[in-house]
């Protein structure tokens, strides 16, 4: 799901239980996932990647038909080396348009194309070693949460054994038999049932203090305000926007979780982005930090 659905670290009672994604975003993720799935299916019928068993048995490259496990260089006589070099020169000429160069394995003189020829597969031992490097025990991934997700097709799926912090942006719909985008996710496991029955907390955290008049006087000159009257609904004042952004930063919540006391979260997000793009936000936080205020 998009960043707006990321859940800050904390206890289970602090986890938002309802995650939303704009339908347009869900449809875009859906189209990308369906296109990638179509490519994957197409490649599955013409898979050029060897299994490790086939590679170890001496099967040649499925793309070019050239040996992957040939005779070691040290065991090849001069005539053999010359023959391999001539064959390599012919191979490079045939793949000159690839513009990716060639590769070859250690102790093997036979060359392969970087663009056309997939690398040999990892052995089971190599895969285990790589897995330990990427996912050490200290980075254990908690997959204890259960979610009920609503898809763009309006069908509902239940996902068990998922992360308690986020839901993937697309899911295979069992009724449509195609990949669909997720527009809403509700966490339904026991940990998520503590509290307010799945709704976001509306009130401010008890230890939060809004900017005082003195604190606002330190930074209000940084923000450019509108001088001319404007039509439509009254504009949210900049001080409230700054307060909202500071509250979000200090608590680690998402914009969607912003308490209604700060007004529309969409407005706060949009105007905060404007402050960031104009570098005003950096100046605001720097000024507050210099006054020994927490950011």
Automatic annotation (TrEMBL):
Q: Where is the composition biased (Polar residues)?
A: 1-14
* Region Disordered, residue ranges: 1-20
Origin: domain of life:
Bacteria
What residues does the Insertion element IS402-like domain cover?
A: 211-284
The residues that cross the membrane are none
Query: Could you identify this protein by its name?
Result: Transposase
